[in-house]
Amino acid sequence: SSHLPDARPLFSFAARSGVPAGFRPPPRRVVVTGGAGFVGSHLVDRLLEQGDSVIVVDNFFTGRKENVAHHLRNPRFELLRHDVVEPILLEVDRIYHLACPASPVHYKYNPIKTIISFIPDLHLLLYKTNVMGTLNMLGLAKRIGARFLLTSTSEVYGDPLEHPQKETYWGHVNPIGVRSCYDEGKRTAETLTMDYHRGGGVEVRIARIFNTYGPRMCLDDGRVVSNFVAQALRRQPMTVYGDGKQTRSFQYVSDLVVKETIDPMATIEFKPNTADDPHMRKPDITKAKQLLHWEPKVSLKEGLPLMVTDFRQRISDE
Ligand code: NAD
Ligand code: UDP
């Protein structure tokens, strides 16, 4: 849909060479786990738009029904409240497995916010979703012969020593750190995915997503862009963890663009950093460009205002 260009870089079904412009793949039956979440709901928009039938499987742990409410009357859309930790039987051609409590507030040990400190139950939930949930969805893929896509994360590289990161880099990950549950959970999910591919003949895809921002992000999920946008709109100081020199693919958002977009008078507050915070992270997209003809198209200057509009509306509704 037209107002969501920020979803495009993630799931750009870029035409391969030789495919005529305007080509659309034949309609398919698709399940999207975690489809009521931020990334998932944008994917669902895209799939329905291209003619697929979509079943969303979500337990609404971090996702919201409102993210997909605009599809509830669409006969090609179905919404199932279900925890992927429990097995499920569906007849589909494609499985997009996004379900994962991905917000940092759910897994990062944050010495500042005493309310959101280390909560073992949440870590357990993350493991269960990543391990048992991924096993269940891979088992389903094998049983029904569906193609399986796992949304993994740049966190599998840990605090990378190689920069920028190529697909071939194995990472520099702390297995026993306070944020290891997310990194290692996703690494395990990747391992399971490749084992089902090699051993079970399942056709698989793994997408390692780097820091993504946009409309429908959880307002208080603790990620840097959502924090800065929500803080600026609420006229609170923007919290910079550590010295603020750590980099991500959207480096300038954190200390420049957000501030300009919302409130030039916005203040900044420095806070101690969380443990094991990666210092530098940036994808090497050479291979994606060559093989998938993919590259991001929406600049921060274009994308951020769209997110700010969404956040402003939701914050004013609070
Ligand atoms: P999100 O929290 O908005 O979406 C995750 C969805 O999964 C939510 O709707 C949640 O309710 C659902 N869910 C969680 N546990 C579940 C379970 N056990 N059963 C069923 N549903 C469950 O997060 P997102 O940013 O949209 O992330 C989507 C995927 O992309 C995740 O796998 C995440 O790890 C990955 N990812 C996202 C980013 C990013 O920057 N947004 C970066 C790297 C990887
Ligand atoms: N960060 C920050 N202030 C915040 C939230 C995050 O300075 O309010 C920093 C954080 O320490 C990290 C970067 O921003 O270096 C990105 O954090 P985020 O949690 O968004 O993503 P990830 O660390 O998973 O890449």
Automatic annotation (TrEMBL):
Its EC number is 4.1.1.35. Its cofactor is NAD(+). It is an enzyme of class 4 (lyase). It comes from the Eukaryota. It is found in: Golgi apparatus membrane; Golgi apparatus, Golgi stack membrane. GO terms for cellular component: Golgi cisterna membrane; Golgi membrane. It catalyses: UDP-alpha-D-glucuronate + H(+) = UDP-alpha-D-xylose + CO2. Residues 32-257 form the NAD(P)-binding domain. Pathway: Nucleotide-sugar biosynthesis; UDP-alpha-D-xylose biosynthesis; UDP-alpha-D-xylose from UDP-alpha-D-glucuronate: step 1/1. Its main location: Golgi. One of its GO terms (biological process) is UDP-D-xylose biosynthetic process. Keywords: Decarboxylase, Glycoprotein, Golgi apparatus, Lyase, Membrane, NAD, Signal-anchor, Transmembrane, Transmembrane helix. It is a single-pass type II membrane protein. One of its GO terms (molecular function) is NAD+ binding. Belongs to the NAD(P)-dependent epimerase/dehydratase family. UDP-glucuronic acid decarboxylase subfamily. Catalyzes the NAD-dependent decarboxylation of UDP-glucuronic acid to UDP-xylose. Necessary for the biosynthesis of the core tetrasaccharide in glycosaminoglycan biosynthesis. This is UDP-glucuronic acid decarboxylase 1. The lineage of its organism: Eukaryota, Viridiplantae, Streptophyta, Embryophyta, Tracheophyta. The chain holds residues 69 to 386 of 386 of the full protein.
